[in-house]
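Q: What residues go here?
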């Protein structure tokens, strides 16, 4: 069915919206979660680690959109060869006696030498004693293994069109669809052939970059390694040119000895796109040229690179044990420079960016289920001369998450628009000042939790924040809580009794609990009026602020 919309502003046309019905809901795996959304679950029979849409004009089309999937599946390896070692009972008993005699001889030598052989750290592990097979109980059981693969999926029917299986003991850690600029280093003809004096860009190429980590059969006895693998996607068709498909093409791989590759992202600066790799405690900037990756910059972190978030030429580095680092990339000398960091030994699980008007804040989620909000403020006295990130607020989330993603906060005028860009243009034509205020230029973060929840973090203007903060304080005292527990106590920052903690006892707070203040709309009108008068406001103004907050927190 069709719906006819009135266009906002002085645009002489109207908008038609076509609804195809509820066919997705009535499929065998259809869902209707509410909020005007129809969801269809696609069973693939594997564990999907990451999914990326291949957004390229030569590959993606409305009829056959392609997705890249990093998946893992469980297999079982047969160990029946351990049931029989090919020896007779006499030979097996003779070998056992020889090992026992050798052990007795070492013990006698240890007693004569005045030390205990069992306490020697160089003593070999008697591995054969751990693998005695008793055939009366069925023999050696199969061992469960995990195999990682890269899938190319056609979303028209969610058919797997091509796959690539990684090596044994190789784990897929991260995946990113990105464009890299092919840069050719020009050589100076007047000097030696190895002297380079310039770079030439030859265009961008689309790749699927996969970062892996390898832990072989020896486990933790040796350090793990990583690998960067680049794939290209080629659209193919049958002989008649009717059926279209895709193909994964292996392009290049590079071994990383620093550790497993945990993060991949793209750095764009001066019309050049490079690959940023986080492996172990190292960040490297890789440049594509001459069909290979060449390292052009690096930065050494403290422990383990968890995640790298880029905006413009600034890096937000999440260290698995040492909180956040704020870096900047300089194209002139191709260097990564540390601007500031948080000196608290915080185990970071996820990090993200909040933005409102001209200010940017960094969000950090730690192992104690806390949220911390930092800013880079070199002129602040708490910044220690500018090399320390200043903590502006903290909040106890009460649940665990592993990813914070930024999104544009849409106001109530845009939230119900099917064409956000055209409506935004129409609003700017109608009001010249629209889009120039801080409330119209907000970026929040959304996250999913390990217990199946979904939440958002939205920046607020100072006036709205203090109004809702007063409402939160009044409601925490006026409303009954479950079990007589305190709302304020639940949202207080949980300190971690870890090494070298230097944070003072002052909690910054500064975060509004949306779960609490949204209950204001469920109260009766007399109760709403009493709470509004207690903070010197009106019901209409508070409800309007809550409406804008709800619209800004809607991601889809």
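A:
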């Amino acid at each position: 069915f069709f719906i006819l919309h009135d266009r906002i502003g002085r645009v002489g046309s109207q908008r038609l919206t076509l609804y195809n019905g509820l066919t997705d809901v009535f499929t065998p795996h259809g869902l209707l979660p509410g909020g005007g959304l129809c969801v269809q679950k696609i069973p693939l029979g594997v564990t999907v680690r990451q999914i990326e849409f291949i957004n390229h004009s030569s590959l993606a089309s409305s009829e056959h959109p392609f997705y890249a999937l990093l998946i893992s599946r469980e297999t079982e390896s047969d160990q029946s060869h351990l049931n029989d070692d090919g020896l007779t009972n006499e030979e097996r008993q003779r070998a056992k006696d020889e090992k026992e005699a050798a052990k007795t001889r070492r013990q006698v030598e240890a007693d004569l030498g005045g030390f205990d052989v069992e306490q020697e750290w160089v003593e070999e592990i008697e591995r054969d004693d751990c693998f005695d097979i008793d055939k009366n109980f069925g023999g050696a059981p199969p061992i469960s293994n995990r195999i990682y693969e890269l899938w190319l999926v056609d979303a028209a029917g969610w058919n797997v069109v091509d796959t690539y299986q990684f090596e044994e003991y190789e784990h897929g850690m991260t995946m990113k669809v990105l464009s890299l600029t092919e840069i050719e280093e020009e050589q100076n003809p007047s000097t030696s052939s190895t002297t380079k004096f310039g770079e030439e860009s030859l265009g961008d190429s689309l790749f699927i970059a996969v970062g892996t980590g390898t832990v072989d059969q020896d486990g933790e006895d040796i350090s793990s390694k990583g690998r960067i693998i680049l794939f290209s996607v080629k659209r193919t068709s049958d002989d008649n040119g009717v059926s279209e498909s895709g193909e994964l093409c292996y392009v290049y791989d590079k071994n990383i000895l620093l550790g497993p590759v945990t993060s991949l992202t793209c750095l764009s600066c001066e019309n050049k796109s490079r690959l940023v790799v986080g492996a172990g405690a190292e960040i490297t900037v890789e440049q594509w040229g001459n069909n290979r990756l060449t390292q052009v910059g690096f930065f050494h972190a403290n422990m383990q690179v968890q995640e790298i978030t880029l905006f413009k030429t600034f890096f937000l580095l999440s260290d698995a044990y040492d909180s956040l680092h704020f870096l900047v990339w300089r194209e002139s000398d191709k260097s990564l420079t540390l601007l500031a960091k948080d000196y608290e030994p915080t185990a970071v699980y996820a990090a993200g960016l909040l933005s409102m008007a001209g200010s940017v804040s960094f969000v950090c989620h730690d192992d104690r289920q806390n949220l911390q909000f930092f800013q880079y403020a070199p002129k602040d006295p708490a910044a220690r001369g500018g090399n320390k990130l200043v903590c502006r607020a903290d909040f106890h989330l009460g649940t665990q998450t592993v990813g914070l993603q930024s999104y544009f906060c849409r106001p109530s005028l845009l939230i119900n628009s099917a064409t956000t860009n055209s409506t935004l243009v129409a609003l700017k034509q109608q009001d010249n000042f629209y889009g120039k205020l801080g409330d119209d230029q907000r970026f929040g973060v959304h996250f999913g939790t390990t217990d199946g929840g979904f939440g958002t973090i939205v920046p607020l203007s100072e006036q709205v924040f203090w109004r809702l903060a007063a409402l939160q304080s009044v409601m925490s005292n006026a409303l009954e809580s479950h079990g007589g527990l305190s709302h304020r106590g639940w949202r207080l920052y949980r300190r971690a009794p870890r090494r070298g903690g230097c944070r003072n006892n002052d909690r910054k707070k500064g975060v509004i609990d949306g779960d609490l203040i949204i209950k204001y709309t469920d109260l009766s009108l007399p109760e709403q009026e009493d709470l509004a008068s207690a903070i010197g406001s009106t019901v209409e103004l508070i409800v309007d602020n809550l409406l804008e907050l709800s619209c800004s927190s809607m991601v889809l």
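A: Context that may help when evaluating the design: The longest helix spans residues 89-113. The chain has a mean pLDDT of 82.
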